[in-house]
């Protein structure tokens, strides 16, 4: 007879992965792999299901409470596991309670507006969860690595010096997120931190699996040539935009399953810390309910 597996996660501190305000993180010194929080695939599945079930209950309460919204932002290099993390962590949550938006190359219409405009339109309503698979942070990441993209943004000709330009964009983001926080939107930002070797391994898997061939293009390989530039851009971005109310979490992502458990724990803590409550019926509503009960009894 097989012994039942207890769904108990290895101990870890969420703060181990949190970038602190005014810190100067170095991604080259941040691990892309840590000791697994599970001892077997079966235990991983149990642990993730336990967290997903808890998230589902809290999402229902978030919707009923209708005072707060939650925005999860996922950033990372290609093949870091963003899609899989979103799919698995949100697997048991009511689809009506959350929306996922992926932001790729801006359209011509989007380029007619400021860089925050296209994401502002997709912010979650109160009571709901919004997920950005890539986000406005692309404007200080890929655009910083490839500044020629700014030519399409129709910005005023007299731009500030390069250093001041990026500083101003970071400030716009921080002020934007502070406004959302004051308005009731809680923001969690995940950087899925994988190694260059692990990315290469995942790219090879996409070549070997016909069902995943579509996921890999020459452009993906070309971007690998800018790995060090992207690393510096992420470091600058995280250091400039992590705040007490909208922190960045640097999630070791070489182990996809481990990353999903870490993400689910951080998400779960954020929802648990919110002062959520089911609305209490008013006297008028109670009378209405009694009237409905009588109607149902007599029908």
Question: Could you characterize the architecture of this molecule?
Answer:
With 299 residues, the chain is an alpha/beta fold. It has a five-stranded parallel β-sheet, with helices on both faces.
Number of strands: 5
Task: Tell me the strand percentage band.
Answer: 5-15%
Radius of gyration based on Cα positions: 22 Å
Category from helices, strands and their pairing:
alpha/beta
Average of pLDDT: 92
String of helices and strands: HEHEHHEHHEHHHEHH
Helix content: 40-55%
Give the N-terminus to C-terminus distance in angstroms: 54 Å
Read across the widest sheet, the strand sequence of neighbours is 2-3-1-4-5
Q: Tell me the number of helical segments per DSSP (H or I, 4 or more residues long).
A: 11
What does the largest sheet look like?
5 strands, parallel
Point out poorly predicted stretches: 1-5
Gross morphology is: globular
Quaternary state of the chains: single chain
Can you tag this structure with a few keywords?
single chain, about 300 residues, alpha/beta, five-stranded parallel β-sheet, 11 helices, about 45% helix, about 10% strand, disordered N terminus
